[in-house]
Structure formats: structure tokens, C-alpha cells
Write a structure and sequence with these properties.
Creatinase_N; Creatine Amidinohydrolase; Pept_M24; X-Pro dipeptidase; Creatine Amidinohydrolase, Chain A, domain 1; about 375 residues; alpha+beta; 9 helices; 6-stranded mixed beta sheet; Creatinase/aminopeptidase-like
């Protein structure tokens, strides 16, 4: 992986040089990991004038290859305790003869920005906006492999839960069990807090699990994700508990399924992000559910659970190949219930078989 990290850092350095900065300070944790590998909490990366340095308050954990930073980087551990790694990195930049430093202004607090200016007043601070985030949009096959394994873990955890007795158990209990199963099957942990919504709670988008118990006839809406080697994916499914689905449940489910399929089929290289949203949204809007639709149809995933691109009505830009995204339309009816179907996919050209579905748990409306 050292060569991969080096290539990524070179691409960022080229962006900084083009904007007139001789060095860069990367502080956002996901961006540090992307460019340097696993790093201690609070670590920052200095792309210096003469060498690149990982600056951290504590030594890296070297117990396994997955927890170590790029071995080609020099690691600088700040002396004492409580030191700010970003401030230390600015000082190192000065010793390398750097006169300008590009920083992630969208991540630095005002206090930290002032501390940098105070510690290195001769440095001209410039911004690099979302340069690293843009580099992260298109994934290499190693990154996609991590997402694929995470999706397999999430599918396995969900499949095992569906084989258990559900009636009478609380939303909170089910969510905790799912998260335990994720770890049992090899995940670093959940990609985000697991959502389990039953009955009328399924009519609330973004519902957090409560002590409501599962009842026969409920919609059971579940959304979970696994983190594997830092990469995060998600899956969402909706089921009916105990009995054959009611007519209104079948109708609502079939509608959301059609919308999700329309979104998935729109995932081709070169497609406008807003057009993917429009494809899914049109199905639901035409059926009279325009007021009940979520603000977005999907989003990118990777080292964070929500990355660019955003699949929204106002989204700019187009999709590239090897971009992993979610497609997750839903309809939530307050006080009654709702349906959400959520998959993680990778954009692929038709010559390669079209979009690659990573989350494969059935989308058939099951009565559990």
C-alpha cells in the first residue's frame, strides 16, 4: 500500500502547488487515513517541502499491519502530553524552509487556526477546500474490496437476525444484537448507529431505536452498516412481521421498490447525479408521495458513511466509474409506517456488467 499512499499524496501536492502552496497540512481524520494509512487519534499529515511527516501525540499502534500508518512516512511524536499535532506540524514546515502552507480550513476550528498563526507567523496559510475529499470520490479496487467485505458482513448479520424470533423484542434490543453480530463477523464496528423502526415508528425518517416491542402486522424497517478496515457501507430493508402483508403495505412496498430500481438502473458512468435522484423521485412523486420523500436519494460512501457525490435534486456533477454510492429512496407515513430500501452499489460501465450490487439481501417483501 505504500506506493498507493505515495501516489495519493503526489496528487494532492500537485493540487497545492498549482494553487501556490509549497506544503499542505491535512487534519481531517478520514483524509489523514486516506493519505497515510491508519493513524492515532488526532494525528495530522504534513506534506512538506522536503519530506512528508505524520505528526501525532501518541505513537502509532503497531500490533497489526491494519493499524499501522504507511511505513514510508516519518512519524513525529510531539513531546509531552496535550500538544496540538497541527501546531507541531506547522513548526516542522518552517524547519523545511516552507513559506506557505495549505490547510483544511473547512475542518480547522477558529481557535486552532489562530494557534497555527501564532506558532508560525511567517507561514502564509491558504486553503485547499475539499481537495482530498474530491480525490477520495473514485475508489481503487482495494478500497472497493473493503466495501464489498463490509457489505457481506452486514448482509450476514441481517440474515441471521431475520431467522430469529422477532415478536415481543424491542427495537433497541434488535439494534444492539445487529451491532454485536457485525463485530462477531469481522467488522471494525457499525458504520453508523443502527436504525430499527417498527409499526408507526417506521413512519419517522431517521428514527432511533426505542423500547417499543415488535408486534404482528408491523412494518419492520432496518438500516445498518459495517465498517471494515475503515471503509463503511450500508444496507436498509423493510419487512412485515408475523402475518401476510396488508394490501396497503404491499402497494407502498412495490412503489418504493420500483423507485429504488429506477435509481439503481440510472447508475452509469457519465450520468448526472441529479438525474439518478430524479429517476427514483419521479416514481414516488407521480404516485402522490412528493411531500413524504427524503431530501436525497443516495450518497457516496467510503472512509465516511456520507461522502460525495450527493444524489439530490440540486446536485452538480456526473458519476464516474468505480464510485460507490447508496440508492435509498423511502416513503414515511407519520403514525402509520413506512418503507425504505437501501443498497450500496459501485458505478460500473455496461461493458463490465453495469452497477455492481454489494448488498445482496433479498428485496422481496418478506413476512417474518
Amino acid at each position: 500500500m505504500s506506493e498507493v499512499y505515495a501516489i495519493r499524496r503526489t496528487r494532492l501536492r500537485e493540487c497545492c502547488n498549482a494553487s501556490g502552496s509549497a506544503a499542505a497540512l491535512v487534519s481531517r481524520p478520514a483524509n489523514v487515513r486516506y493519505l497515510a494509512g491508519a493513524a492515532p487519534e488526532g494525528a495530522v499529515l504534513l506534506l512538506g517541502g522536503t519530506e512528508d511527516v505524520l505528526v501525532c501525540a501518541d505513537p502509532p499502534d503497531d500490533r497489526s499491519p491494519q493499524s499501522r500508518p504507511d511505513e514510508s512516512l516519518r512519524v513525529h511524536v510531539t513531546p509531552g502530553t496535550g500538544g496540538d499535532a497541527a501546531v507541531a506540524a506547522a513548526g516542522l514546515a518552517l524547519t523545511q524552509g516552507v513559506d506557505s502552507l495549505a490547510v483544511e480550513e473547512h475542518h480547522l476550528t477558529v481557535t486552532r487556526h489562530r494557534a497555527l498563526r501564532s506558532a508560525a507567523p511567517r507561514l502564509r496559510l491558504a486553503g485547499i477546500a475539499g481537495a482530498v475529499e474530491q480525490l477520495r470520490v473514485v475508489k481503487d479496487e482495494e478500497e472497493i474490496s473493503c466495501l464489498r467485505i463490509g457489505a457481506e458482513i452486514a448482509d450476514q448479520a441481517l440474515g441471521e437476525l431475520l431467522e430469529s424470533i422477532l415478536v415481543g423484542r424491542t427495537e433497541r434490543h434488535l439494534a444492539l444484537e445487529l451491532e454485536r453480530r457485525l463485530v462477531d463477523h469481522g467488522a471494525d464496528g457499525p458504520a453508523f448507529p443502527t436504525s430499527v423502526a417498527t409499526g408507526p415508528n417506521a413512519g419517522r425518517p431517521g428514527h432511533r431505536p426505542t423500547d417499543r416491542r415488535v408486534e404482528e402486522g408491523d412494518f419492520l424497517s432496518v438500516c445498518l452498516g459495517a465498517t471494515y478496515r475503515g471503509y463503511r457501507c450500508e444496507i436498509g430493508r423493510t419487512f412485515v412481521i408475523g402475518t401476510a402483508p396488508a394490501d396497503w403495505q404491499i402497494e407502498l412496498y412495490d412503489l418504493v421498490f420500483s423507485a429504488q430500481r429506477a435509481g439503481r438502473e440510472s447508475l452509469v458512468p457519465g450520468a448526472a447525479c441529479r438525474d439518478v435522484d430524479r429517476a427514483a423521485r419521479h416514481v414516488l412523486d407521480s404516485a402522490g408521495y412528493g411531500e413524504a420523500l427524503p431530501v436525497l436519494t443516495g450518497h457516496g460512501v467510503g472512509l465516511e458513511i456520507r461522502e460525495d457525490p450527493q444524489l439530490t435534486p440540486a446536485a452538480m456533477g456526473k458519476l464516474d466509474a468505480c464510485v460507490p454510492v447508496t440508492v435509498e429512496p423511502g416513503v414515511h407515513l407519520p403514525g402509520r409506517g413506512g418503507v425504505r430500501i437501501d443498497d450500496t452499489l459501485v458505478v460500473r460501465p455496461e461493458a463490465d456488467g453495469g452497477p455492481e450490487l454489494l448488498t445482496i439481501t433479498t428485496k422481496e417483501l418478506l413476512a417474518l
